[in-house]
């Protein structure tokens, strides 16, 4: 950071036009552009002299490429972040960029809001997790209440929140939804077969004769709760970049909810259909680093 608290950025690109356009965008967005380079040798020189927080990197340059320059930068200082800014973007390039510890990827022509988000996301540290930890549980709990009300026209009541990562016994059915982004985590909704059946019959408006219909309903309900909650959190701070994975359903008479390294918070929702256990936790993560 410079003395004004702005991120110091070096632009690497063999096109003076692209450097000029990008510099104007970054200046306007409040970053401090401290230098530029158009070759491997110039990149090494300016990075050593200016000690930037982040380098924007073109992929194609005469005699070198963005990944070779990235490796050279990290030999100087492994903490310098690199964001690729290139006209080319495909799965193979993205894979190689990740392997070379690139922190983000923006395709030309550069959208000012997109590159600002990618740079901010690359630079965030523990503060982002602390911000998320203050708000995520209330958002997930509200999502469960809202969506239960939408589907069944009922409103749950809640017991006391508990913070623990210890293993415990399942009630019979567990829906697990993974969350990825700058912070990654996991949500579990756990309930009994009877609760699932009672809820499914109200949602489906018919008698449920087999467990498969219950499992399908609980999986979709968990997906909706987690997806809505993550959307709300992203609106509060788009740097979170949270995305949900498809739910995984576990069920059985001797099922256990395993101990986790996450700091999790739990609560029991008391509904007209029976108890629903809600458990969520987050930690720092680097997945989905390209997403807005």
Question: Could you list some keywords that capture this structure?
Answer:
Chemotaxis protein chec; 292 residues; Rossmann fold; 2 domains; Stage 0 sporulation protein A homolog; elongated; CheY-like_superfamily; disordered C terminus; alpha+beta; 5-stranded parallel sheet
Question: How does this structure look, described?
Answer:
The chain is an alpha+beta fold and 292 residues long. It folds into 2 domains: 8-123, Rossmann fold, CATH 3.40.50.2300; 126-284, Chemotaxis protein chec (3-Layer(aba) Sandwich). It contains 8 helices and 17 strands. The chain has helices at residues 16-28, 40-50, 66-76, 91-99, 112-123, 126-152, 193-204, 211-236; strands at 8-12, 32-37, 54-57, 60-61, 64-65, 81-86, 104-107, 157-158, 162-163, 168-169, 173-180, 183-191, 243-244, 248-251, 256-257, 263-271, 274-284. The strands form 4 sheets. Strands 8, 9, 11, 12, 13, 14, 16 and 17 form an 8-stranded antiparallel sheet that branches. A hairpin with a 2-residue loop joins β16 and β17. α2 runs parallel beside α3, α6 (126-152) packs across α8 and α7 crosses α8. It is elongated and about 70 Å long. Residues 287-292 have low confidence and may be disordered.
């Amino acid at each position: 950071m410079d003395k004004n608290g702005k991120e110091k950025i070096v632009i690497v690109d063999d096109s003076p036009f692209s450097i000029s356009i990008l510099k104007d965008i970054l200046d306007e967005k409040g970053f401090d552009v401290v230098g530029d380079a158009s070759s491997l040798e110039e990149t090494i020189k300016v990075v050593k002299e200016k000690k930037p927080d982040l380098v924007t990197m073109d992929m194609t340059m005469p005699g070198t490429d963005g990944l070779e320059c990235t490796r050279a930068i990290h030999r100087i200082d492994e903490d310098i972040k690199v964001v690729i800014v290139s006209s080319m973007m495909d799965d193979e390039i993205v894979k190689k960029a990740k392997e070379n510890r690139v922190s983000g990827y923006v395709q030309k022509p550069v959208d000012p809001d997109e590159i600002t988000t990618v740079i901010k996301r690359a630079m965030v540290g523990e503060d982002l997790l602390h911000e998320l930890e203050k708000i995520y549980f209330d958002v997930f709990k509200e999502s469960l209440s809202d969506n239960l009300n939408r589907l069944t026209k009922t409103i749950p009541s809640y017991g006391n929140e508990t913070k623990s990562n210890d293993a415990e016994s399942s009630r019979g059915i567990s829906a697990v939804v993974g969350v990825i982004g700058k912070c990654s985590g996991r949500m579990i909704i756990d309930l009994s077969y009877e609760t699932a059946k009672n809820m499914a019959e109200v949602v489906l408006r018919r008698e449920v004769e087999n467990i498969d219909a219950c499992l399908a309903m609980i999986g979709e309900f968990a997906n909706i709760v987690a997806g809505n909650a993550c959307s709300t959190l992203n609106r509060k701070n788009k740097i979170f970049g949270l995305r949900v994975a498809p739910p995984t359903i576990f069920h059985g008479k001797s099922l256990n909810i395993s101990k986790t390294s996450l700091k999790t918070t739990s609560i029991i929702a008391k509904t007209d259909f029976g108890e629903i256990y809600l458990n969520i936790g987050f930690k720092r993560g680097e997945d989905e680093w390209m997403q807005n």
